[in-house]
Amino acid sequence: MENWPFDQPENCATIVSRTVLEGRASILQVSHDEDDHGWQFLDNETVEAEQAAIVCLSHIVALDPSVIEVADLEPGWIATRSHGGAAWVRKLAPPELEDDA
């Protein structure tokens, strides 16, 4: 894609909900990780490892071109929306919970 808008290359590995990948749900949350600048494209359900897949960033854009609207999301931020096609709402990601175990 000419003028690629993301800070990571098109072939960058991203995390995606299997429900999104299989076309059963819309992308409702995008996170841009602060630690490694990775991207996650999720539905609003809790994603356990077995419910996620890894695909290249260009595949996500092909699945849902509206994610280009949040390509400038700063690391450490998330964007959410209520349903596919709704406006994205950006906010600072909450701190990750420490595992005391």
| First and last CA, distance | 45 Å
Supply the number of structural domains. Answer: 1
Structural class call reads alpha+beta
Mean pLDDT: 90
Order of SSEs: EHEEEHEE
The residue ranges in which pLDDT falls below 50 over 5 or more consecutive positions are 97-101
Order of adjacent strands in the largest pleated sheet: 4-1-3-2-5-6
Query: Total helix count?
Result: 2
Reported for the largest beta sheet, the result is: 6 strands, mixed
Kindly describe this structure.
The protein has 101 residues and is α+β, with helices and mostly antiparallel strands. It has one domain (13-89). It has helices at 18-21, 57-63; strands spanning 13-17, 29-32, 39-42, 52-56, 77-80, 89-92. β5 and β6 (89-92) form a beta hairpin. The longest helix is centred in the middle third of the chain and has 7 residues, at 57-63.
Short description:
The protein is an alpha+beta fold. The chain contains two helices and six strands; from the N terminus they run E-H-E-E-E-H-E-E.
Give short descriptive properties of this protein.
disordered C terminus; 2 helices; 101 residues; 11% helix; globular; six-stranded mixed sheet; 6 strands; alpha+beta
Topology:
Blueprint (H helix, E strand, L loop, with lengths): L12 E5 H4 L7 E4 L6 E4 L9 E5 H7 L13 E4 L8 E4 L9
Parallel strand pairs: 1-3
Antiparallel strand pairs: 1-4, 2-3, 2-5, 5-6
